[in-house]
Amino acid sequence: MSVRVVLADDQPLVRSGLRVLIADAPDLTVVGEAGTGADAVRVVRDLQPDVVLMDIRMPGMDGIEATRQIAAGSGPTRVLVLTTFDSDDHVYGALRAGASGFLVKDMAVDDILAAIRVVAAGDALIAPGVTRRLIADFVKSRESAVRSVRPVAGITEREREVLTLIGRGRSNSEIAGELFITVATAKSHVARLLTKLAARDRVQLVIIAYETGLVTPPG
Fold first, then answer.
1. Which keywords has UniProt assigned to this entry (predicted)?
2. Cα–Cα distance between 71 and 78 in angstroms, integer?
3. Same domain? 116 vs 194
4. Helix ranges, the chain (H)
5. Among positive and negative, which fits the CA dihedral 183, 189, 193, 195?
6. 115 and 174 share a domain?
7. What span, in angstroms and rounded, lies between the C-alpha atoms of 63 and 60?
8. Which of 11, 96, 86, 1 is closest to 53 using CA atoms?
9. Among 46, 48, 57, 49, which residue's Cα sits nearest to residue 14?
């Protein structure tokens, strides 16, 4: 079945370009568009797509508030934010709101399409460079009371090791290699962590790893 996608961007030309790109992918289908955050929330509520590609800066309700409302809902839609990274604060806001990943608008076409598939499959985008830096800076900026090291209750020592590696941006295959386990076992550990820690996706596991002190922000 095709991954159902909604495009949310206030620039019709951007939406048109994305629609053309996605039309060439046999497993992806654009089912709706929105030019404002409020429209995005309404379209997602009506169509229940798998993924919404969400711009941050839009008139009226911005993409951050729209992401918050969509992520707080009971539907299956996951939010993939498109940004030029002209303001890290906007990306931090989207992260807090529940976005499952981030894209740069000038990324290669194949990378954009692959990112949609990754998010639709229930994973999240944890890029070793940009995204991990943003998450680290976001967590480091929290008040010291929140940033104080606290134990992660209810997980095993092996799961703690896996959580630490997730916080460092490792993929499942990299986790398997470093811990000398199979990729399938690594995936099982990640799945159990998501359940035990009530995390929506891998992005939230990274935040937990930083907030509990398992991973220290650079600098």
1. DNA-binding, Phosphoprotein, Transcription, Transcription regulation
2. 7
3. no
4. 12-23, 37-47, 63-72, 88-97, 109-120, 130-140, 144-147, 157-167, 172-179, 183-196, 202-211
5. positive
6. no
7. 10
8. 11
9. 57
| pLDDT, tens only, 62-94 | 999 999 999 988 788 999 988 775 566 676 777
Distance CA 167, CA 215 (A): 6
Sheet of 101-104: strands edge to edge? 28-34, 3-8, 51-55, 78-83, 101-104
**Do residue 99 and residue 157 come from a single domain?**
no
Token pair belonging to 115: 């990112």
Question: 19's torsion region: left (phi>0), alpha (psi -120 to 50) or beta?
Answer: alpha
Domain, as residue range, for 63: 3-125
Q: Determine the residue type at 195.
A: T
